[in-house]
Write a structure and sequence with these properties.
Order of helices and strands of chain A: HHEHHHEHHEEHEHEHEEHHEHEE
Largest sheet of chain B: 3 strands, antiparallel
CATH superfamily of the largest domain in chain A: Vaccinia Virus protein VP39
Domain Methyltransferase small (chain A): 121-242
Strand content of chain B: 5-15%
Oligomer: heterodimer
Strand order of the largest sheet of chain B: 1-2-3
Helix content of chain A: 40-55%
EC number (chain A): 2.1.1.297
CATH class of the largest domain in chain B: Alpha Beta
GO molecular function (chain A): nucleic acid binding; peptide chain release factor N(5)-glutamine methyltransferase activity
CATH class of the largest domain in chain A: Alpha Beta
Order of helices and strands of chain B: HEEEHH
Number of strands of chain B: 3
Distance between the termini of chain B: 90 Å
Keywords (chain A): Methyltransferase, S-adenosyl-L-methionine, Transferase
Protein name (chain A): peptide chain release factor N(5)-glutamine methyltransferase
Number of domains of chain B: 2
Number of helices of chain B: 3
CATH architecture of the largest domain in chain B: 2-Layer Sandwich
Strand order of the largest sheet of chain A: 7-6-5-8-9-11-10
Shape of chain B: elongated
Radius of gyration of chain A: 22 Å
Radius of gyration of chain B: 27 Å
Distance between the termini of chain A: 43 Å
Shape of chain A: elongated
Strand content of chain A: 15-25%
Structural class of chain A: alpha/beta
Amino acid sequence: MLKYLKRPLLTLRQSATRALSNSTKTTATTTATGGRLIEVNKALNGWEAKLKDAGVQDTDFNLKCIVSHVLKRKFNTVPDDFSQLKFNSAQLADFERFLEARCARMPLQHIIGEWDFMDITLKTAPTVFIPRPETEEFVRLVIDNYKRAEHVNMLEVGCGSGAMSLSMLHALPQVQATAIERSKAATALAWENAKLLGLQQRFEVHNHTMETDKYMPESLHDKRYDLIISNPPYVKTDEFQYLHPEVVVYENLNALDGGSDGLRVARLVFDLACVHLRPGGKLWLELGNEHPPLVKTIMHLQYEGRLKFVQSYQDQYKRERFVQLEKV
Amino acid sequence: MLQLRSLAAVLSSSLCHRLASNNAHLDYSRYPSLQESDIEETLMRGSGPGGQAVNKTNNCVFLRHLPTGLTVKCHLHRLASKNRIEARKILLDKLDAHLNGEQSIAAQLKVFDQKKSSERKRRQGKLQEMKKMWQSREMSNVDGETEK
């Protein structure tokens, strides 16, 4: 199935990268022709239909995001009808190449180069997993539980762009966060985001791939934490056929592939937590739709005396997806 | 339900901030409070798998206030999470206008602004008048001096 999908999608991706990398040439020629302004509403002509043909949903929102990005204005300061807004020729060229990329289903967040997560804005980078809105709900829940804690020594397993750790650090000054991440690109991006947000004093990130009996990098092998959070890959292998091009073509599937039952990586995190949580410490996980009851069973059967199932929670779309576990 | 309660907390704290920062001329005593149990919230996400499997950016939030039937749609921010808070603020203002009419904060602010602008006009008029008087006085003084 995946192989069958890949061919046409690969060409999609190539055309998107081509569209994005054309920048220097086109801007150079168009800026030379002078500073003529064109109304944004004129520049929009036909693009909505093109986006729809390419299978992009929510076209109004996509257009507004790209317009505000091109004009370097904040999204909420741009009027919905774009009245009075104008592009110069360089901006028009940017606008068209971004939309070309979007028609090739490049994620909006990659085109814009940044995205919001809770109260912070994070840089995005190709191949690094884009944080999802449900994860905001997850982090809000964790923050709510640790608001009154005095000091929290936290570990995040698989931090990606750093969204969860950095928004925790941003919200709670008493948190100290360590993160491990298997992708080099994501490790670098998380560190960059930490510096951009001025949170690098309380944050460290290590490039490390978690393996059985080598859960943590050598330098951290005897560390114990009060709290471990993780959003491990949890998409079941047979759900991969339903993934959108934005996900399959542009995101790193390592951040999604949870094996046949979606819990392959989560099991490694359970084992890691057995070693690296202090007694009474908590493990919070964001998982898929059917996972919380499954996790409860696994705790009873395999982790008796080591980890205990505390509670599960719903995301904002009323799907039971978050679990809290406790080190015994 | 839990996440809704925490949202309400966010909202009330931002409201307190507004109360504290705004001028003392406004009467907030009738300003209503929002019960999360009275709100029907619709988040656009669609069916199918959520989470990691999809990358949707729907930002639009709909609220319906069940006791009054007031509705609010908000897509001001890129994030749905921010729009959920914003939509509640808008709903509160709508509810205030609905319940309190002339006494609502918006109406009070309007009256206050009108007063301010008419006061400013009055002062400007007075200043103009004084200027004119001064000018004519100076002129007559100059006239008097040249006569000497």
